[in-house]
From TrEMBL:
Keywords: Lyase
Alphabetical list of InterPro entries matching this protein: CDP_4_6_deHydtase, NAD(P)-bd_dom, NAD(P)-bd_dom_sf
NCBIfam families for this protein: CDP_4_6_dhtase
Group of enzyme by EC: lyase
GO terms assigned for molecular function: CDP-glucose 4,6-dehydratase activity
Recorded superkingdom: Bacteria
SUPFAM superfamilies on file: NAD(P)-binding Rossmann-fold domains (SSF51735)
Record domain NAD(P)-binding: where: 18-321
Protein name in the entry: CDP-glucose 4,6-dehydratase
């Protein structure tokens, strides 16, 4: 029997160290943590895109912003020691598959050694109660089969990005067993393809579509038949916060790996996403086939989230059609001069009401 969803605890005054807070996903989490009352120190490089949600929503005004590179252990350790966090969320990463083919050394240095540096700093400074490391659904050795991947399936990855995230999971597991059995409670979380307003990354389907629709040009589609576990960013972040609540409360059974993915019917092909977002946008230009070089990317990927449902009471609350509508609403509001922070906080509040958080 699935346990009931538990509302998130009051985070007022709780000290949080958040890496990657200038990125899309990190910016959403920074705003949610601020809304919960947390005292957030963010450690990251400058925003990876222009525009960015970090700048549009004025997140630097809400958190203690430290500019730094997780490839620099001394810088990570100094920032973390100054922040004296109770909990760490590690999101900083090189997150793009296609870029990993162009920059494999940077990808491995950031995603693997960056994770080592964050965990080593947490081990050295003391006082950290819990850490949640965010990796990806692409950490699994993808066999292109119809069955969803469980947390116990082998790590792997064809491309540098995927394999770097699989390697990061091995690092997390080793630190948990070698150093953190009596120290910080350490969990890793693997989400599907997160989508939402304020994502302007290159070579990512939803941002590419939004840019094309805003400019009135035809979007170029690379792999129309590829199936991904699409989910709104708030679905994943809600799971991360549930994990963090349980870890801080001292429940070390939660110090493990977790999948957070959409309902089965929301694992859709790219072509379905394009058509649905085009209809929601209205007056959008029809897509065209991508004619450039296309390096290998996974064709079929699904996640088994039965563990999170059974042990946490977590479940998807925002169906994919609604998530796409929220994205259109976000970008149309901001594009018309609306307040990016206000619309983001509004969607967080609406999601919490739907999810019972």
């Amino acid at each position: 029997m699935t346990p009931p969803v538990q509302r998130l605890n009051d985070w007022t005054g709780r000290r949080v160290f958040l890496t990657g807070h200038t990125g899309f996903k990190g910016s959403w989490l920074a705003l949610w943590l601020h809304q919960l009352g947390a005292e957030v120190t963010g450690f990251a490089l400058p925003p990876p895109t222009d525009p960015s949600l970090f700048d549009a929503a004025g997140i630097g005004e809400l958190v203690h912003h430290v500019e730094g590179d997780i490839r620099d252990l001394a810088a990570v350790r100094a920032a973390m020691a100054a922040a004296r966090p109770e909990i760490i969320f590690h999101l900083a990463a090189q997150p793009l598959v296609r870029l990993s083919y162009d920059e494999p050394v940077e990808t491995y240095a950031t995603n693997v050694m960056g994770t080592v540096h964050v965990l080593e700093a947490a081990r050295q400074i003391g006082g950290v109660k819990a850490a949640v490391c965010i990796t990806t659904d692409k950490c699994y050795e993808n066999r292109e089969w119809v069955w969803p991947y469980r947390e116990t399936d082998p790590m792997g990855g064809h491309d540098p990005y995927s394999s770097s995230k699989g390697a990061a999971e091995l690092v997390i597991s080793a630190y948990r067993r070698s150093f953190f059995e009596q120290g910080p409670a350490l969990a890793s979380v693997r989400a599907g393809n997160v989508i939402g307003g304020g994502d302007w990354a290159a070579d990512r389907l939803i941002p590419d579509l939004v840019r094309a629709f805003e400019q009135g040009v035809a979007p170029a589609i690379r792999a129309p038949d590829a199936v991904r576990p699409w989910q709104h960013v708030l679905e994943a972040l809600g799971g991360y916060l549930m994990i963090a609540d349980r870890l801080i409360a001292g429940d070390r059974t939660i110090a493990d790996a977790w999948n957070f993915g959409p309902a089965d019917e929301d694992a859709r092909p790219v072509s379905w996403i394009v058509a649905r977002l085009q209809a929601a946008w209205g007056n959008a230009t029809d897509p065209v086939p991508f004619t450039g070089a296309v390096p290998h990317e996974a064709g079929l990927l699904r996640l088994d989230c039965s563990k999170a449902r059974a042990l946490l009471g977590w479940r998807p609350s925002l169906p994919l059609p609604d998530a796409l509508d929220w994205i259109v609403d976000w970008h149309r509001t901001v594009g018309a001069g609306g307040d990016a922070r206000a619309i983001t906080l509004h969607q967080i509040a609406e999601y919490r009401a739907r999810a019972g958080l």
